[in-house]
Amino acid sequence: MKLPIVAYGDPVLRKVCTDIDKNYPELNQLISNMFDTMYAASGVGLAAPQIGLPIRLFIVDTGEDEDGNNGYKKVFINAEILDETGEPWAFNEGCLSIPDVREDVFRKPNVLIRYYDENWILHEDEVTGMPARVIQHEYDHIEGKLFTDTLSLLRKRMLKSKLDGISKGNVKTDYKMKFPQQNKKR
């Protein structure tokens, strides 16, 4: 089932999320719905706050690479980034909660992350490249941060009216959204 994605300006996007346990209600269905929602919006990652839940859960699926190899697809529960290493590199990022805004964001190319998967198996993985970037972006969501927080003050001022418009529902998307100021869905 596709769920509405919470738009910029909703307070849930600014909450530091809480851990869950294996008894979280209908967790497998929630994870399935999150994948359906992410794919319908052509995303590569989705965090629980983006569907209105302040819990430490996010998913990643980078899809196939240019050589047709399987991409990086994982579920992260109660994740904790233990280390970020390497020389920061810029990439033009976007966010399903902030449609039509893309900006260069600098992130380190390597992460060491500890998390539970959907079967409650504990992992500690070193991840590099684009999957590491997506993990960092989604991890920021469960920490109450957005990619726009990394921008310069000048750039934030330049985007202010566009961001205010998104929070008011003045944006068109191909996926359902929930807007904080209008409380309507698309």
Account of the protein in words:
The chain has helices at 27-40, 129-142, 153-167; strands spanning 5-6, 45-47, 57-61, 73-85, 89-95, 98-107, 110-116, 122-128, 177-178. The protein is an alpha+beta fold and 186 residues long. It has one domain (5-178): Peptide deformylase (Peptide Deformylase), CATH 3.90.45. The strands form three sheets. Strands 2-3-4-7-8 form a five-stranded antiparallel beta sheet, sandwiched between helices. A hairpin with a 2-residue loop joins β5 and β6 (98-107). It is globular and about 45 Å long. The relative contact order is 0.21.
Span between termini: 15 Å
**CATH homologous superfamily name?**
Peptide deformylase
Q: Radius of gyration, Cα only, in angstroms?
A: 16 Å
Q: How large is the share of residues in beta strands?
A: 25-35%
User: Assembly type of the shown chains?
Assistant: single chain
CATH architectural name: Alpha-Beta Complex
Q: What is the share of helical residues?
A: 10-25%
Number of separate domains: 1
What sort of overall outline do the alpha carbons produce when their principal axes are compared? globular
Q: SSE order in H/E notation?
A: EHEEEEEEEHHE
Strand element count: 9
Give the structural class.
Answer: alpha+beta
pLDDT averaged over residues:
94
Number of contiguous helices:
3
Sheet with most strands: 5 strands, antiparallel
The neighbouring-strand order within the major sheet is 2-3-4-7-8
CATH fold annotation? Peptide Deformylase
Outline the low-pLDDT stretches. Answer: none
Class in CATH? Alpha Beta
